[in-house]
Automatic annotation (TrEMBL), chains A, B:
Residues 13-86 form the Transcription regulator PadR N-terminal domain. SUPFAM superfamilies: Winged helix' DNA-binding domain. Gene3D superfamilies: Winged helix-like DNA-binding domain superfamily/Winged helix DNA-binding domain. This is PadR family transcriptional regulator. It comes from Microterricola pindariensis. Coiled coil: none annotated. Signal peptide: none annotated. InterPro entries: Metal_resp_DNA-bind_regulator, Tscrpt_reg_PadR_N, WH-like_DNA-bd_sf, WH_DNA-bd_sf.
Amino acid sequence: MADTEMREPTLFILASLASGQKHGYAMIHDVAALSDGRVRLKVATLYAALGRLGTQGLVAPAGEESVDGRLRRYYALTEPGSEALERELQRIEANARQLRSRLQARPASMRAALGGAA
Amino acid sequence: MADTEMREPTLFILASLASGQKHGYAMIHDVAALSDGRVRLKVATLYAALGRLGTQGLVAPAGEESVDGRLRRYYALTEPGSEALERELQRIEANARQLRSRLQARPASMRAALGGAA
DNA sequence: AGAACATACTCTGTTGATCGATATATCCCG
DNA sequence: CGGGATATATCGATCAACAGAGTATGTTCT
């Protein structure tokens, strides 16, 4: 049970697998597309994460394939992985909501200076 | 500047200061309230972060006060700190949006056979 | 009075995710 | 043949978070 914060690359790896099993290199492109180019997985991060998530039971190997003499190792999201992703997503949604609400509320020094609408 | 991901405690510390200057211990309570009890700053995390954010120019010392013989060190959000917070918030809002959109999209295959518990 | 707890700041040592760099191997294009 | 894309893997460094312990003062309960 991970109550520790999941980081951006890890989150996107799980999300990438949420639309079906993929091999490592495919995730790099998928995550880049999904994030509009913002999140660029580094290979070291990716393979370290896949190993870690495998140990935690959040992803599982889903077979191998050889295409043009190149090996592809597929991974799939497990049921616990799917649940963990949903939990983490709810966490960052809560963070976004609560942090945004605080930013909307301005400090007294600024409230005095502003008319009403920004 | 900082294109590295800002972590949950750091984000909430900056947000706490966004509503006005505070001393360390007050931030712990403020962040707990703001996050509905979810984020509980550890003292080591807090003071390490304040030192770090000070070095980065995102927060600045805002005077000291002694109440009942106990020292209070106040900190304030700087202009760069405010901008960094807004940028990071936009990042996690984008993450939330993009990750959620992927989860809404139905998984291509059923994953009935996978998973741990049950 | 003594214990326990809350306030308030500080430091040390450890863990763990990310990342730069490097390595191996195959295939395609010019 | 050289360079790029595909595809996987590992090493070492970095750094935020954390557990834990320490210092000091004031309040509350028994």
